[in-house]
Write a structure and sequence with these properties.
Oligomer: single chain
Low-confidence stretches: none
Structural class: mainly alpha
Radius of gyration: 32 Å
Largest sheet: none
Distance between the termini: 75 Å
Strand content: under 5%
């Protein structure tokens, strides 16, 4: 019976110690996150100055046009907009060939 008591005491002590350390770590993380928050600015930012008499709607239209133009150029694969250098990725034909080489061929079932 004493072996069972020692086992239970060790289990309770070990699990209690683990949960105590987890609680301390949770408090430490909570404290560090709280100290790391950005402080709000004390004064308000001045109103943005629009260049050449443009209002907010005109600037937003220009921004949409620029983003759309960049998306179209990326689809056209212009050299300035490529994500990968030419020759670094295999072509689609090579990828299909490798897939066919690595897949075992299974004959189809015959219907009579």
């Amino acid at each position: 019976m004493t072996a069972l008591n020692i086992g239970l005491q060790l289990t309770v002590f070990g699990m209690g110690l683990v949960f105590l350390i987890l609680a301390v770590m949770a408090f430490l993380i909570f404290f560090l996150v709280r100290m790391d928050r950005a402080k709000p600015p004390l004064e308000e930012a001045p109103a943005p100055a629009y260049p050449a008499g443009l209002d907010a709607e005109a600037l937003s239209a220009i921004a949409v046009a620029v983003v759309t133009h960049q998306a179209v150029r990326r689809k056209e694969a212009a050299p300035a907009m490529r994500r990968h250098r030419p020759g670094t990725l295999p072509s689609r034909w090579v990828v299909v060939g490798r897939t066919l080489q690595n897949t075992s061929w299974q004959p189809g079932r015959r219907t009579q």
